[in-house]
Structures are given as C-alpha cells and as structure tokens.
Design brief:
Length: about 180
C-alpha cells in the first residue's frame, strides 16, 4: 500500500503559514519606553539588530524610519543602547535628517548624543547609554554610525516636540532609500 500523493500540500501549508505570520519587526513593545513624568525623564531601550529584518540592520526591528520616538522638548533622555546582532558591530548617533543618508559617522545634531566606538561599532551584546536633553524641537534620526549601515536603512526617527506632553513611540511609513 502506498501513501496518497499530495501535490499541493507544500504550497497550501506555506500559504497557511504566511497568512497568519506577523511582519517581522513591526511590533512596538511598550517595555522599550519608561517615563518619569515628574522628573521629565525618559529611558528608551535602543536595540540594534533586534530581528533579522534588513539583514539585522535595524533598530528595535524597524528600518528606514519605520519607528518614531516622540520626546517633549526639554526632557532628559537616556537611550540604553544594546547590540543584539550576533554577527555585526553597531553604534548609534542622533543626526540631522539629510538625503542621501551619510555613509560615515557625522557630527551629532545634539551634543553628546552618540555611542562609544561610533565608527567601529560595539560588538554583540555590548551596551552603552546615550544621555542628553531633548532640544531644540525638530526632526532627527537615530542612525548607526558604522560605515554603510545607516545608508542601508539602519535608522529610525526621533521627534523633539514643543507640543507633546508625554513621550511616545509611533510606527511611521518606511522611507525608501
């Protein structure tokens, strides 16, 4: 006795798996952001290479500006950077939005808003904390300073808002490069 042949089973199984599959890196985790409203301070977990999206060239699973961190102007900010990528070094810096994105590190748009080893990057599971006051109001990018990474899509948006009353994270349309 032979088993019945299921010619379409692999395709059907694949379509069932894909139909319910969430998009990689598209979930905002509220645990990334902690706020002390009384002290006007926020901590944001900035995780390099959180998922395999874009060859792990992403922050918190987002690439090409797909996530925006909104911060009220004048708040104290602590970006807790961690390189989760098991293969590549990464770093982070706050830069002014430019087109095209720089392929090398540039001067930060906010004083002291960059990780250690900006150009070389931090190795897998290395950490650093970026501390600054969110000012002036405006649009910024959080970009990887390792040559080629930011220009390849490893950046998210940061908005310092004169009207926001509390920090928040929002998904934003991805910008093609």
């Amino acid at each position: 006795m032979t088993a019945p042949r299921l010619r379409f089973a692999p395709a059907a199984l694949l379509s069932l798996c894909l139909a319910g599959a969430p998009l990689a890196g598209r979930d905002i985790d509220p645990a990334w952001l902690s706020v002390d409203a009384g002290a006007k301070t926020l901590r944001f977990q900035l995780i390099a290479g959180l998922t395999g999206l874009n060859g792990a060239l992403n922050f918190n699973g987002f690439r090409d500006g797909g996530l925006t961190l909104v911060i009220p102007e004048g708040w104290r900010v602590e970006l807790d950077f961690r390189n989760h990528d098991g293969m590549l070094p990464h770093s982070a810096e706050i830069i002014t939005p430019v087109t095209p994105l720089p392929v090398q590190p540039v001067a930060p748009a906010i004083a002291r808003a960059f990780t250690l080893r900006l150009e070389q990057g931090l190795v897998s599971e290395a950490t650093d904390t970026i501390r600054f006051v969110a000012q002036p109001a405006g649009e910024y990018l959080i970009s990887c300073g390792v040559p080629g990474h930011g220009a390849s899509g490893m950046w998210i948006r940061m908005r310092v808002s004169a009207t926001a009353t509390a920090p928040t994270m929002v998904e934003t349309p991805v910008q093609a490069h």
